[in-house]
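[Meeting: bench + compute handoff]

Bench side (C.D.) handed over the final construct sequence. Compute side (W.E.) agreed to return the predicted structure before the next meeting so the bench team could plan truncations. Sequence as handed over:
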Amino acid sequence: MFRLPAVDREAWVRVSMATSAGTPGRPNEDFVGAVPGAVVLLDGAGIPGTGSICAHGVAWYTRRLGAALLARLSRDGGRALTAILATSIDEVTAAHRGTCDVTHPASPQATVAIVRSCRGSLEHLVLADCTVVLGPLGGCPQVVTDEREVTNQRICAEPLRGIARGTPAYDRVRAACSEALRARRNQPGGYWIAKDDPRAAEEAVTGSRPLDDLSRVALLSNGASRIVSPYGLTDWAGVLELLDAHGPADVVRRIREAEARPGAAPDAPVPDDATVAHCTRLASS
């Protein structure tokens, strides 16, 4: 845990973080970091076959993009978050365009969550399936998500209805569904993610709230948000309470316990990298 001075205020922002690789022996493809007044969390997309397309890999991509974002956030205090993300995507793409097939559908990509203190407000940006939870001084939390990938997954998976799992027909149709979903990536009417096209940044979910209305903020990767769904261990208000009481590491611990519990969530996906950042002391001193 460490403290970061807010960019434009006398109050301090305290940031605590935790991250855990989903599979022992494999790189953690999430990224989390902070600079004074801003926090960045990325969730890398580990698509099968990426290694033969990009020599660097997903973990490299998230770390390079995360570092580029933090560098710009530390010096571009008034620039729009979408513009900072677009420039950072362009920079990382240029770094491996000459050696890797950056336009291939399976080339490295990442979801993005950013929060920034700026001129008395807390700005947020979410691209794809990361989550930002804004904890107000009173009332229910505001949960900021980007549902477009989930919506498109549901549409593309429709042909699987009624086909028995584990059969050759299921595997064949599932592969076609996956291909159909990839075709919707970074396309109008589809969903958007940080990859090789900086224009995806303009499609991010953005907003702001007065800092004085908030007591804390949480950023979660897709693997960490499983504490709410599919595991149903708590709701979003409960997540903030857990973070207040025990910190991010406890949220990650509960997710790992749920994954290891037989029959806890039969349809849950395989264990994923899980990352949480918790920001407190946001209100004016």
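W.E. noted at the follow-up: Residues 58-73 form the longest helix (16 residues). C.D. will use this when planning the next construct.
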